[in-house]
Amino acid sequence: MTETRALVLIPARMAASRLPGKPLSDIAGLPMIVHVLRRAEAARIGRVVVATDTPEIAHAVTGAGGEAVMTRADHPSGSDRIFEALQALDPAGRIDTVINVQGDLPTIAPEDIRAVLTPLADPAVDIATLAAVITRDEEHTNPNVVKVVGSPLAATRLRALYFTRATAPHGDGPRYHHIGLYAYRRRALARFVALPPSPLEIREKLEQLRALEAGMRIDVTVVDSVPLGVDTPHDLDTARQILMSQFRSS
Predict the structure, then answer these.
(1) For position 51, which CATH number holds?
(2) What distance in Å separates the CA atoms of residue 181 and residue 116, rounded to the nearest whole number?
(3) Which of 153, 185, 191, 224 is most buried (most C-beta within 10 Å)?
(4) Is the full-model pTM beyond 0.85?
């Protein structure tokens, strides 16, 4: 997969309910969105652009030497926002793979961003994503930890059968913590955003179930750990500690 055929998009907006304005939250002297940008750039899989509806976010990104594109403010999800950005950035249709990196993952490892592309080597796969084996007992029953239930295809590869907030699958064996980073074939993203919300998506409040209910194939790369998602002031403090420690040791 060549760099010119892949586009990394980072959707970012200010209106987070639990931590308003979080893309611009300072972490070790830089806005959080810039940390995510730097890690996506370090993955070296293609052009990286932040898709936002907020001029302040765009200014922070371009001020740090990055690229931003303005999108509408009324998108119901990050997937809809990246599809608008894709059409604006590549109206000729040259891009065939789109990677959606959430803007609240300032500790995501560049190699994990690269790893999401691996399943797309199989032409039968429409969408690829990430997961890690759950190692903390409390995560098995925590509804805020999304689990992916899948059929193993290799030591680090699953074919997703379902995503759920429940404790699943039942019985002995590993459970997998889903990581909300996706790689879409362009045609799969176009189909996905055109679909109405599905019954299980509405029930579980998990957008990816729309794709499964429509018969689309999602495969999963299993990585070593779950990156910190910043949703609360406590998460932000933790991110600051992690990144300051990394900067001191580098």
Answers:
(1) 3.90.550.10
(2) 8
(3) 185
(4) yes
